[in-house]
Amino acid sequence: MGKYFGTDGFRGEANVTLTVEHAYKVGRFLGWYFGKDKEEKCRVVIGKDTRRSSYMFEYSLVAGLTASGADVYLLHVTTTPSVSYVARTEDFDCGIMISASHNPYYDNGIKLINSKGEKMDEETILKVEDYIDGKLEIPFAVKDDIGCTVDYAAGRNRYIGYLISLATRSYKNMKVGLDCANGSAWMIAKSVFDALGAKTYVINAEPNGLNINTNAGSTHIEVLQSFVKENNLDVGFAFDGDADRCIAVDDTGAVIDGDLILYVCGTYMKERGMLHNNTIVTTVMSNFGLYKALEAVDIQYEKTAVGDKYVYENMVKNGHRIGGEQSGHIIFSKYANTGDGILTAIKVMEVILEKKMPLSKLASPVKIYPQVLKNVRVKSKPEAQNDADVQAAVQSVAEKLGDTGRILVRESGTEPLIRVMVEAETMEECEKHVDSVIAVIREKGHCVEE
Question: Which residues carry this modification: Phosphoserine (predicted)?
């Protein structure tokens, strides 16, 4: 990760951590960098979520891009995966999404996407950061080399058409709930499900710039759970702020998270001969119960570091077709190069309709293990993680759990925290083992006492 850009873009509080000057400089660099070796104009596509600050950052990026000679195509409020789709299918040099995903409204972010619809490579991002830090100078475009903007709502509409084309059956007679998190999916998701014939029930689709993710969407799934039960719906889908995540709610009101979606879709793909390499890609945070269920049906799995970026890299390297995170980032590599919440909902609907089973039954073979995750604020993450006594405590827990659970101790990527997670057959076991490791971290003097 760089100085400004993490695994999911440049993110922080608007005009505090991430400022309009940053956005302008990102635009200035990208417009020059992707246009410097071309005879024709550089073309960049931009989307944004519903945060009030997204307009501010959009105009700043546009000013920088056009000042460097790029033509900028504006999708307006749309999803991150739609920017990825348009960038890869319509010959753009790069794409930019303005969003802080599931963060509160006062945060925002800039996600950079390459011409293949993938997250921008690290080398280019480091060059962007060098320009932000004043380590190089670039020229302004002049005369007819100055760029312009194009209203490109048509690109968003083509993406909607693409999603609709992926459905294998009509959704007629299906009662579907959609929680749009007052974010990017607020118009697109309903348009797709209505077009496919569902009886669509929508909540949290009234964005005002300040309510994105507020008691809504995939990070507040309890809202959709209540809604599904109250309205006797067949299924519900909750998205996050930029709609690259999806968490489902089944017909009983139970949560179907990313792990369960991987199981439901992965086993279906295996039955249909579509699960390349007989493998599903997960992260180290996937539940132990998922792995036990996959082993029971003879499906192999890979584990990556936390982050859909690492899931995607593994899928590309090995030719796998499905992967994702517990948080609802699911990637279907045949159809997209990034997590796509609405696409994920469509693929779950395909399994429900093709197998003629409710989602509750499809997910029932997975017995989710109780999990306890506690964060410990430390003086030095590497020192705490590598302490011999801490490692011995972790090994002791692993041996006690055997094949009935697991322990994971990892450093936070963004905060001075060590995360200690245990999955076991009972919540009491989880608590006991987590606390035993934290006690050693504290005894060895690594904690920052608050």
Answer: 101
